[in-house]
Structures are given as structure tokens and as C-alpha cells.
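Much of what follows relies on a compact textual record of a protein's fold. A record is reproduced here so that you can trace the correspondence yourselves:

. . .
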Amino acid sequence: MLLQDVLDAPDLGIRLLHGAAALTRPVHRACTTDMPDPTRYVSTGSVVFTGLVWRRAPEDSEVFVAHLVRSGVAAVAAGEALFGEVPADFVDACVRHDLPLLAVPDEVPFSRVIEFMTRQWSGARMDRLQTGLARQRRLLAAFADGHALDDLLARLCREFDVPAWLFTATGTLVAGNGPVDETAVDAICTTALTTPRFPATTGGGHTVLPVGAALRDRTTAWFLALGPGTAGPEECLDAFTELATVAALERVRREDRRRAVWETSDARHLADVVGAAHPSGTPLVAVVVERAPAATPEQRIALRAAVHDALPSCVTGIDAGGRVVAVVPGTGSCIITALGRRLGRLTPALAGGRIAAGVSGTCAGESIDGGIRSAQAAAAIAREDADQVSVRAAELDSAVGLLAAVPDRVRRAFADRTLGQVLDYDRRSRAGLMTTLEAFLDCDGSWRRTADRLHLHPNTVRYRIGRVEALTGRNLAHTGDRLDVFLAVRALT
């Protein structure tokens, strides 16, 4: 009901003393208090009835009204029985704080006014319930007739003149009406994954509603987001809450279809499934995603679903290590961007866990297995990153790129085993063997060019390289030995 409804009741005789602009403001509850500090006894959006018993001096009015404003009440109704009228100091305090003020005649008990308001609220709730049931029946009937969620969402958006979107937890759009930028989606996902109760409001003013049992496992949940400024009208929230019920049915239906596809594809080799899904010659990228610590079966299913949300056209499987393996058409850079942003949105719901992902370079059908292996190596590197969600690219177009795909601890062990004695020798004697070795390799093994670069005599270069060969047991005139030492140097950078 509205404040205007209370003034319009002829048998109450209530008058407005301040706040005409608030007469169309909805109120949801009423309470009575005469405590000097009413904070504990009032609630946001309520009309507070007071007999002014707490007023001992004019300055008490300022304190009482300030408490009401901080509590977010919608209006205050003051009885005239005690003083014969509402004191001017109380009126002035309400004007200063812009708190709507009603005057209740001395012959009208508060109980009669509250009873009138309760009847109004009960009737309004019954009307809303009947309207909501009718709307939900229409939505369910349209859904059963094959209307898409996009169509149903668009209908409500037109009816209430608000934009709205249906998202997965990764921020992937299921249905929507109107543009929304990625920053707003980030805020919507963060709010949806962290709020203790719904509906919730983001810092940007979007209202977030759950779809189904959203508080159970939020990493697989869907959420409805309404455009800024739509949190107030109850009928609007009711309508979109009813749509969320229909969306929950669609979510379950999609999950059932996805599980059926998984069961079929898991019985075959992943490369065969990819070949059937994408024409020969399609540029493909392999992705490997894992949770740390090791995922439970339920978490693995949720992670696989999240990968499908983040990469809608992918084909997935589970490798021997329990990691999610996906193959998706596209380029590595685009896949890395999409995966990093969308999986990154799950961070608030990971409860201290981590997600590591590796992305291969572009591969064709016959090289999918190799792409998966390179993505697994990149995921191993991502696993050692400090970030809660890390996505690493596999760069395997050179020997150095191959080395980068090796886990850090393996590269460090290789470098130490190959060059450890050279490094120790330099630390003890400051002989400059590593500086000379790096210049020698960079100059393609040319004594003269190395000497010129370092401003040394060629014999000094020969002596230092000889010491390196003695300490490493490698002959740098041989291609294989030079490659070992070159990779060990690069492993140190």
C-alpha cells in the first residue's frame, strides 16, 4: 500500500504535516514505539507510530527523528492525544531530515490505523498471489508450447519496461534483453556468488535473483539480473521470480541433455568425437582444466559444466588424471581471453580451491592428441602459479617453447644439473664464465665475435669456454651438447 492510502481513509482523519512528495512511496509494515532510542524496535520501510511519550524537552525531537532516519523508516505518525497537537519542534525535526510526518487525531487509537493498514496489505498480498499464479501458469504454458527463454524474458521486459539477462555463474549469457558490458557482468557474478540472501543488489544497482537452488552449488547456478533501478516494484520482482522458476526447468533440461552427451562421448576416443562434431580442417584448440586440491567427483562435474559454459562450442572429456579436457574451434588467444575471464568469475565460490588451465596452440584433427599433451603441460605450469584461477598458453613452436611447457621444478633441476658447477665456480671466483657462455651462444659459437662483444682477447674466450666444457662435461662444438647447454641457460631466465 501507499502512504496516500492512509490519508484517503475517511474514518481515520489522518493529516499530512510534511512529505507530500512521498505519498506514492510504498510501505510494507507498521510498528509502534515510544522509546527514546527506537532503533531496535523499527525496521526499514515501515511507518512508525509514536505517542510522543519519550519527549521531555524540545531537543528530544531531533534525537528521536535522527534515529528513525538512520533506521530507514518510510514515515512517522505522531499521535495528538498527549499534547493536543504535534509539537512544532517535532515537525521542524522531520522537515530538517525530510522524514514524512502524519498526524493522528487524539480520538483515533493507533490500533485502528494499523488494523486498516493490515487489511490493505492482506488484500494486496492476495491480489499479488492470484496475479502471480496466473502469470506463472501463462509462462509455464508458453514454455511447454516450445517458446524459448529469450521470448519469455522479452515479454516481461516489455511489460515492465526493464532490461534483464539470464546468466550462468561464469557470466555466460543464456538469454537477454538489451546490452550489458563485461564490467557489469563481473559485478553481477560476484554478487550472485557471495550474497547470503536473494534478491541482492550490485554496487551498480542491478538486482540479482536466483534460478532454482542457487545457494547449493553456485558454480553451476544460473541467475537473473534486472537493470539498475528495478529493485523497488514488488510486482516486477514477483514476475521475474516466476520466470526464474521456468528458467530452472530449462536449466535442468539442458543439464540432462549435457549429461547424455557426456555419457556418449566418454565411451569414445575424444579425437573421434571432435572429428564428428567439426569438419575436417577446422582450426581447433585443446584445453585442459583442473582443480587443486584434487577435485571430488561432484566438483569435477561442476568444473566440466563450467568449461562448457565458458566455451559453449567445446567437446569435453576426462583424462586419466581426472582433469577436464576440452577441444574447441577457434584461436588460442581468443580461447585464453574467454576462459580466463569466465572461469575467473568463479573465484568467490571456490572456497580456497584453485583452478589451473592450459591452452594449446592451433591444431588440426590429426594433431589433437599432441595439442592435448601440450595443454596438459601448460596446465602443470599454471598449477604452480599463485593466482586462484590461472590460464597458461602452451608455446611449442620452438625448443624454447617446449622447455617453457615443462614444469618449473623440472626446468630448475635440469638447469642445476647442467650448469650447477659453472654457477658455483663463478660465485667463488667471479670468473665471468656464465657471461662469456651466454655471449658465446648468442654469437653462434664465434670466438672472434664473442671477444669483440665482451672486449676480451680471443684466447681469454677460449680459456673460459674450455672451463665451461670441463665443468659441464659437454663439448660445445657438438650440436647436441650445445643445445643442452643453451636450454639450460634459457631455463635460468
Remarks:
- The longest strand covers residues 354-363.
- The chain has a mean pLDDT of 85.
- The two ends are 70 Å apart (CA to CA).
- The chain has four domains: 3-117, 147-251, 268-404, 408-491.
